[in-house]
Amino acid sequence: MKKRTGLVLEGGAMRGMFSAGVIDVMMENGIDFDGVIGVSAGACFGGNYTSRQPGRVLRYNLRFAHEPEYCSFRSLLKTGDLYGAEFCYHRLPEELDPMDEETFMANPQKFYVNMTDVDTGECVYREIRDLGRESMECIRASASMPVAARPVEIDGRRYLDGGLSDAIPIRKFEEMGYTKNVIILTRPRDYRKQPQKALGLMKLFLKNYPAVIEALKTRHIRYNAALDYIREQEEKEAVFVIAPPVPLRVGKIEHDTREILAAYNMGRDAGMAALPELREFLNRGD
After folding, report:
1. CB atoms within 10 A of CB 190
2. For the segment 6-29, what is each residue's pLDDT rounded down to a tens digit?
3. pTM above 0.85, yes or no
4. CB count in 10 Å sphere of residue 108
């Protein structure tokens, strides 16, 4: 039986522009997957694979880089969300630069995101079957960083950034039946996460969310364990990894369109360089 192929997209706020460059190259060259799972920025940008819209992520990030409603401390102070909730997850994909919902829903490719339940600290995985309001709220929840965003309420539960509980959900995707996976990281291969900085200060902001604080305390342990597992699987040729060759200069908040474009182009270059081996990996019989 043919193995189901999957694409795993790490988050990282605007470091996700690297991933956007890679996936645009994949779409332009006919690389397809049975399923895609995105975390945080990977959730925001990954849906464009299923809606078949190469170039869209770069286009709207360049267009709205200086728009306060898109991302600004003004938005954070005014609404509680660094990335404007209504602007980014509803007005933009519905009106300003629409996602192709017809193509999304007709595509047999499955698209998933993950979120962290703020009351339990557990990871919740959600299949995105349409681009309606609730689905977009799930994507928003996946990308809602603690302190920089309010918890998102969905079906009576509250959620934050999926990266808190499962930043690179390769094991979960394997459990779901996707056993031939491509993983796009947004940091170089030798990166290792350190314990959360300024945890004491964050505790003040998150005093009503003890499960989130606990997740932050141990996030680096889970993250580095995922990297170790990925390295083991890569040595067995069970996964294919694409990562930036050097640290990205783009910030979590980025208004400099030159840096946004540079991160995207680094992704395109990495995607083009990987194409021959990627095709071989995906076409190889196991």
Report:
1. 7
2. 999 999 999 999 999 999 999 999
3. yes
4. 8
